[in-house]
Amino acid sequence: MKKIFILLAISCQLLAISQIKAQSLSGTVTDSTTHLTIPGAVVFLPQLKLGITTDVKGDYKITLPKGTYEVEVEILGYATMTKQVTIKGDLTQNFAMAVSTSSTKEVIITALGNVTNIQRSPVPVTVVSHDFLVQNTATNAVDAIALQPGITAITTGPGVSKPEINGLGYNRVLTLFDGERQEDFQWGDEHGILIDPYAIYDAEIIRGPASLQYGNYAVAGVVSFKSQPFPEEGTTAGSVLTEYQTNNGLIGNSFDIGGNHSGFVWDLRASQEESHCYWDPADGYVWGTACTQSNVRGVIGINKPWGYSRLSISVLHRQVEIPDGNRDSATGRFEFDVPQANAFGGNPQYNANGILIPGTGQVYPTRSNYLSYNSALASVYQILDHDEAWWQNSINVGMGRIGADIGYSQSKRQEIDTGTVTEEGLTVHDIPYSFKYQVAGENSGLKLTAGTNGMYEWNTDFSEPGAPYKGIFEIPNYTDFDIGGYAILNWDPNSIKNLSLSGGLRYDYRTMNGQSMYLANDNTSSQTEVPSGGVSGSTGNYSANSNQNVVPVGTSLYQQFPTLNRNFSGVSGSIGATYQLPENNYVKFNISRTYRAPSILELMSNETDPADEYKQGDINLNGEAGYQMDVAYGNNGRDLSLEIDGFYNVIHNFIFADRISSKVGGDSLIGGVPVYHFASSSTAVMEGISAYFNIHPADTKWLEVDNGFTYIYSQILNATDSTNHVPFTPAPRLTSEAKFKLTDRHNSILKGTYIAFGLAKYWAQTDIYSALWNELPSSPYTLYNAGVGTNFVNPKTGRVICTFVVNCTNLMNITYMDHTSREQYFWAYNGAYAGQANYGLTPAVVTKASEGIYNMGRNVGFKLIFPIGGHKVSDMETHGASE
Fold this sequence. Notes:
The chain is mainly β. It has 5 helices and 52 strands. The strands form 10 sheets. The protein has a 22-stranded antiparallel beta barrel.
């Protein structure tokens, strides 16, 4: 880290010496019909995260580095405008805006590498606005976007969510924050994305293959979260946010402050949130669902005529309970894995047969336990720490620019199962990097991006915790080096303004090395880790373990992991086009070849995860190769906006965890839990439609109706009736929301007031991988929601004093299970807790939905946001859109 800071300081000093007179972009924003000027319009450059608001005369002026940029101009009541400009010296650019009430805007997207207009992207993209994130209630970053068309979330309680795009998730969806890869246990089922939800300003979601730009972990798409834009030049601004949710008692607070002075930009955010167990109508409070999280994030940078340089540093701590579903088999009441010391100080005691003596320990959680914000009370909980630094640079060279980004992240996971000692612990280190050259022809319409990116990753497992605890080793110590080279060419010629073409090629190479591991006295209280050195066969010589103890000659050794030395390589490519038809219609087409190498979990896992699933990797797995076609039709009209996206995806050597049977029939069990084996001999087909249809009558400015639809069908070719669907394919879904906007009155203290009502209808999902209870069919249900929000302003100055939002999810408080919720399978031991004679011998076979855990009941969220720096109402408008 010291080297990074030193390099940054030296680079800044050398580049500052060479700076020349700054260039500026200036002009006037007017109404295209009346030709009157428009004060308060936001002129924003997404590539630089810089913007400015027009003054009372409708004028603006902003200082910029040399280069070619996409400019976005927006204000409430007008259609967003986009324009590409080339800055060589001072440039004047005026904008004439057309009246529109739509919140679905023609916006600029940056996640595809080549900055482009959303309508001219051949791959479907969803932009989630800041307004949408503020006005809705969620418990984590992924849940906040999970109702967008084509997007779902795989959840393991409210603290663990992973994104799915077009029915594919985990290592097929890449998550970014301000361009940095989030590799925080991306391969695992039971780990959420370690991002502070309050640090997210808006998001872009690529709903299709993005391997060309990002490599083999983006074969299904990319979720790109972005932080708060920097304030206007010469200002310091920020906000204070506080939030409360009624169902799980979530209390969240976040403070942000940033500045922009003479090309020096900075931002500092500190957030904290905590929640107790959530409640549902069937289970009451659900044991093991509390969560706490804190984050501090800082950014410093400079914007100069030669380009920009920024350094971001983040420290995040999360402690999350994992619901394991342990219940009393007779009453269905949640119970501890191991009886606890009771309220009177009595410790649990057992008879000679290992059965708990009644009255000597607390078996069931109490109401105070459920309502406690102490997430260490649960039987199973995780302590997750994620620290990262990300250095981003853009340097103008000739007609183009060089981007040079490098980072470092450390993700530490501690798994505690009954007690306070870490039984499973690991630390994953990542060094992501990206180097690229981008150039745009001023008149030809050509844009070229060529470069290389990848990462170097290594993992270190914690050592044995010592008796009476035993270590749990899910994956070995390993190293992973990824590198890929690519070239992308876009053609958007001025001579053929309606046509845009895009295509490119990429080659990826990965080398993975995993260390072997042996365990002496496996799965006993005297289990000892033995390193690979000196081990031969099932017995070994005197061998030092990680604690420098020794294992006697002749001790039986269990091989936890073999040695891994594998290389993988593959080619990705795509070609696509968009065409702008008359009357605001447009069409898109894209065809892609994708490639993905297997993850360390798929290759070498050999242990039970917190969801009570024993995962076995296959060291001989090969990479996946796929082909996807995307076709879309859209209209961005005066009174309505719509887009229908269809996709067809074929994946050869499709890798998934398959539940296996025993030799005598039924589930294969290890330690009383079912066994899943990663296999890749199948060909999977994913196909579906995602769409949105938004009504925003120009003559009825107080009304907006937004609708979204998702339907995905999956097949595994040449499979039996019970194994012919990809696991966790989401159920068909329709979302709809009607928003009523109250007219702002002159000198009123309330501005931007709205009332919203919505629903999310889920159809039954019966196309499942049903063999050996891999999945259960899900029932149909409909969730209703409602919300209201407003800005309190100073009527004399027009400045916002406070933004107030109330949003209610599951308004009718129905009992339901989401099909991609892994909690529905958490009926763990049928009442046999640790210490009982039959512990681990009576695992549950889930046969109906009522045996699992239901999703959250009614939840009302309250948010208060206090701007710092005196924003006007127009300043609260976003630089994105919600579909």
